[in-house]
Design goal:
Lambda Exonuclease, Chain A; 5-stranded mixed β-sheet; binds iron/sulfur cluster; 3-stranded mixed β-sheet; globular
């Protein structure tokens, strides 16, 4: 069994934040643990994950091809991945699916492709990329819009969405995940089954799926 190793400083991956930011998940401890440890054991990927990966790649290639046909300068995830370090020492890392630059390189559009059901966290993820990219290497000083692409529709996010309120919430969450105090742990069947941490690191992990059959009767209504 892989033994988790403490990191030298907090490292946060964007996708750990987006679901917490909009309340799609509530267990901050998972992100806190991963921010402070590396080489931790992970739950095995399912066959579903392989199918998801292939669907995602197919849609990604389609979006990439459409943008390329339009003559846009298109950067793939390996060309636009970033690591930015805050003054607190916390590192924020991410890898947008696609970044399409405007011709004059004053900015562009961040694309993220989603093959599942639309979630608010999809937009939050893109918004964190829109905040972070202008602080990274060749994108410094640029301004980005965002676009979440689903199989049957797209959601546009204007650059104005990265306002003070959004940044305040993002920085507060980054502060809690970076803190030496462990984040709140919220074990539940519905959340733990999507968490990649094993019971070796989180003994409270709940592996039983919630059942629709679980119910109790009351006489009040
Ligand atoms: S297994 Fe469950 S309780 Fe443990 S960190 Fe993951 S979501 Fe939280």
């Amino acid at each position: 069994m892989t033994q988790a190793v403490p990191r030298s400083g907090p490292y946060i991956w964007v996708t750990w934040l987006s679901k917490l930011l909009v309340g799609d998940v509530s267990c901050e401890w998972a992100a806190w643990f991963k921010a402070h440890h590396k080489q931790y054991a992970k739950m095995p990927s399912s066959l579903d994950a392989v199918g998801w990966q292939m669907n995602h790649t197919e849609l990604l290639n389609k979006v990439w091809g459409d943008l390329d046909d339009q003559g846009k300068e298109v950067l793939t995830e390996n060309q636009s991945s970033f690591n930015i370090r805050g003054s607190s020492g916390t590192m924020l890392g991410g890898r947008p699916d696609i970044v399409a630059l405007f011709e004059n390189e004053t900015g562009g559009t961040v694309y993220d492709v989603k093959t599942g059901q639309p979630r608010a966290s999809d937009q939050a993820q893109v918004m964190i990329y829109m905040y972070a990219l202008p602080h990274w290497n060749r994108f410094q000083g640029m301004q980005f819009d965002g676009r979440v692409v689903y199989n049957d529709h797209e959601v546009a996010i204007p650059h104005s969405a990265i306002d003070d309120t959004f940044k305040k919430r993002l920085f507060a969450l980054i502060g809690r995940i970076s803190s030496q105090d462990p984040g709140r742990k919220v074990p539940s069947g519905s959340e733990c089954r999507f968490c990649d941490l094993t019971s070796a690191d989180c003994p409270e992990r709940v592996d039983e799926e919630p059942s629709d059959q679980d119910e109790m009767e009351v006489s009040d209504f």
